[in-house]
Design brief:
- 51% of the residues lie in helices and 9% in strands.
- The protein has 328 residues and is mainly α.
- It folds into two domains: 33 residues; 199 residues, no CATH class.
- β1 and β2 form a beta hairpin.
- The C terminus is likely disordered.
């Protein structure tokens, strides 16, 4: 290309336009790049839930991949905390909730949803890490479980059964009763201080009977295949990843409902106005109100005229009826 061509303003503009378009096309690809969490950060991310029983852990990891739905689900669970069993299952189905079934499956566990909603940065990071690095996330869970078990905090008891290896599994002692462990990650993953009673490191203050009523959301069929690095939700492997996160739909028995548009005050006001206008035969409520004012004035005029004529008192009831007929 000659110097004259290089300096040609039209050519320069074409080159710049092509460069801008290439940058625009490349920007989405950069934005969609999967995140990366180093092992130490993954250990911190999973530390809060690593000691959950396997069925509950599987459900939490799946639900965390829908972080935008967690706050609303936590609010719904708090408002319906007085329900349980089949009554709660019927309320979940009856409200036609738009959230993913993995999120709905945590509604019987308001404390878990509240914990996730109270720290959305952590919840989003946990979900993104599981989408982008599922095997590394599960390896981090195993590292934290080994620590808690080696230090004596994690052990078999009336509520859970802890295996010895090669993978540390935590199963509910009663398959249909899912308990939620309470513990301080700062405590249970470190060597206990001299004289510290390790039995107090993990407590179980809340549990849910996840029986037949909750089977449509996967309960009873959730587990972790540690040797395969896969979680099973509703007896099917969870294959949602960073790449297919917008298209993947996990198989569930329950019906999915689309997100409902928010109710707008002006829409309600307009429909109420139209109903009122149709009831009275006027175009607008304002006309109806004006007609009422005119009717009041006419009744006052009739009343004054009647009194002015000096008619008999026993006709007052008749005038009153006449007023009601006019109003009708």
């Amino acid at each position: 290309m000659s110097r004259e061509q290089i300096c040609n303003p039209k050519i320069v503009m074409m080159v710049l336009a092509a460069f801008v378009m290439c940058c625009a096309w490349a920007a989405p690809a950069v934005a969609q790049a999967p995140p990366y969490y180093p092992p130490q950060q993954l250990d911190q991310l999973v530390s809060r839930v690593a000691l959950y029983p396997d069925p509950l852990l599987a459900q939490v990891l799946a639900a965390a991949s829908f972080p935008d739905q967690i706050p609303d689900a936590a609010g719904w669970a708090d408002q319906h905390h007085y329900l349980n069993g089949s009554a709660l299952a019927q309320a979940i189905e009856g409200d036609q909730l738009p959230w993913d079934p993995s999120v709905q499956a945590l509604l019987p566990f308001p404390s878990v949803l509240d914990r996730m909603a109270s720290d959305m940065n952590w919840t989003a990071d946990l979900g993104n890490a599981f989408l982008a690095q599922p095997e590394e996330v599960m390896a981090a869970v195993q590292r934290m479980r080994w620590r808690a078990r080696d230090y004596g905090y994690l052990r078999t008891g009336p509520q859970i059964i802890v295996s010895r290896g090669p993978y540390v599994t935590i199963l509910p002692a009663r398959p249909d009763y899912i308990v939620v462990p309470y513990y301080d990650p700062v405590v249970v993953y470190e060597r206990p201080r001299p004289g510290f009673f390790v039995g107090a490191g993990i407590s179980f203050r809340f549990g849910v009977v996840a029986g037949v009523a909750f089977r449509p959301w996967g309960w009873g069929y959730n587990r972790v295949a540690w040797d395969q690095h896969v979680i099973f939700i509703n007896n099917s492997p969870w294959r949602r990843t960073w790449v297919n996160r917008r298209e993947y739909v996990h198989p569930y028995a329950i019906r999915r409902y689309p997100a409902r548009p928010p109710e707008r005050h002006e829409v309600f006001e307009r429909s109420e106005r139209e109903r009122t206008a149709g009831r009275y035969g006027y175009q607008r409520v304002e006309e109806h109100r004006e007609e009422h004012v005119r009717e009041d004035h006419r009744r006052d005029d009739h009343h004054r005229e009647d009194h002015g004529r000096g008619d008999r008192g026993h006709d007052d009831h008749g005038h009153g009826d006449h007023g009601r007929d006019d109003h009708r």
